[in-house]
Amino acid sequence: MHGQLQKVKCPLSGKNQSWLKDVAATDLCHCCKTPQPLRPDIVWFGEMPYQMEQCTDALMQADLFMSIGTSGQVYPAAGFVQIAAHAGAHTVELNMEASRGDFAEGYYGPAAKIVPVYLDTLS
Ligand SMILES: [Zn+2]
């Protein structure tokens, strides 16, 4: 949903392409009549994340929703827990500290420690 580091896109057409080196201000697209400076194909603050429909579909079908290592403060992702819970998923937060999200269950500490502990409870 946040894009791909190994791609760039044209800011005008939105077309993206594979790009495995740094993006320079002199790197231009080949898709526009007036070539545009390329930018990383990453969603920046204020832009709509990619594949929101697929994200929502997955949230609506989930039995378990886990939020790992996030402040839960940036929308639209911050609203994922409500969508999943409303659709019937069990919601779990694994984080350094409790966020403002309304989770059914929470485990707090470094993800490297608490994620394996939580996964053990599932088996
Ligand atoms: Zn272009």
From TrEMBL:
It holds the Pfam family SIR2. It is an enzyme of class 2 (transferase). The keyword NAD applies. It comes from the Bacteria. Its EC number is 2.3.1.286. Keywords: NAD, Transferase. The keyword NAD applies. Residues 1-123 form the Deacetylase sirtuin-type domain. InterPro entries: DHS-like_NAD/FAD-binding_dom, NAD-dep_sirtuin_deacylases, Sirtuin, Sirtuin_cat_small_dom_sf, Ssirtuin_cat_dom. PANTHER family: NAD-DEPENDENT PROTEIN DEACYLASE (PTHR11085:SF4), NAD-DEPENDENT PROTEIN DEACYLASE SIRTUIN-5, MITOCHONDRIAL-RELATED (PTHR11085). This is protein acetyllysine N-acetyltransferase. It comes from Rheinheimera soli.
